[in-house]
Amino acid sequence: MLGLGADLLWADMNRLLAFLFHQGVLDEQFLQLQQLQDETSPNFVSEVVNIYFHESEKLLRNLRGLLMEREFSDYKKMGIHLNQLMGSSSSIGAKRVTNVCLAFRAATDHNNRSGCLRALEMLEHEYCYLKNKLHELFQIEQQRVLAAGVRYPVQNN
Amino acid sequence: MIHQWMLNKVGVKNQAAENGKEAVQIHCSGQGFDLILMDKEMPLMNGIEATKELRSMGICSKIVGVSSHSEEKQIQEFMEAGLDDYLVKPLNMAKLRSILDNIM
């Protein structure tokens, strides 16, 4: 019975990861992140992803702020924020978010405000979905680590 | 952070700069590097400006540009600033190793 809970949680984690890969939410770059995690940096992935969330939310606020301006015309500035978001998203393997950034960038290249607004809505939706799913993954991982640390007393007959 | 961890993983001593201006300042302080991984999109001073500045200072280190852009025009603009090479994000261990192998 030792570690049964941990095994089940490990299976849950793998199922969720497989689902996220299958849906195109994540790509192989996420595996690169996982490979950088080891005993010396056991929380590396969650630390990097949390920094990504923090930075991304700032960039998304900047993008929305720019587009909501009455006399908005600074597509170049918007492009800069977008490029940062795209770069960091691709670096953690956030494939769908990266793809929406690409479409958004195309709209900025054409100074297409309505296209940008549509892309922003989609981007916020994809980002939200990614964040929820990754939080779910990290929660399962935390539970697994706790469960793996539980040991039943050995009975000596 | 990811790139730093990748470099640490392969045993490469490294230092990170928050923006292009800081990268230039680090070099002004007299520090030298075998390789500079230069992000194109940075606040205060972007990668193109920083690369031009470093070259005008006489910095001969290998500078490899890194960006999410894959369009030829964008890459050319960055290369013309003084890059030795260019990598499209995301950086992975294989891309990093190929750059490091060229320096060794």
The H-and-E topology of chain B, N to C, reads as HHEHEHEH
The tally of helices of chain A reads 6
Please name the two chains that share the biggest interface, counting residues whose Cβ lies under 8 Å from a Cβ on the partner chain.
A-B, 22 and 16 residues
* Average pLDDT of chain B: 91
CATH class of chain A: Mainly Alpha
User: How much of the sequence of chain A is in beta strands?
Assistant: under 5%
Per CATH, the architecture of chain B is 3-Layer(aba) Sandwich
Q: How many helical stretches of chain B?
A: 5
Please mark out the parts of chain A with pLDDT under 50 across 5 or more consecutive residues, or reply none: none
Give the name of the CATH architecture of chain A.
Up-down Bundle
**Please, what is the CATH homologous superfamily of chain A?**
HPT domain
- The beta-strand count of chain A equals 0
User: Could you state the CATH homologous superfamily of chain B?
Assistant: Response regulator
Distance between the termini of chain B: 23 Å
* Beta-strand content of chain B: 5-15%
Number of domains of chain A: 1
Helix proportion of chain A: over 70%
Q: Biggest sheet of chain B, strands in spatial order? A: 1-2-3
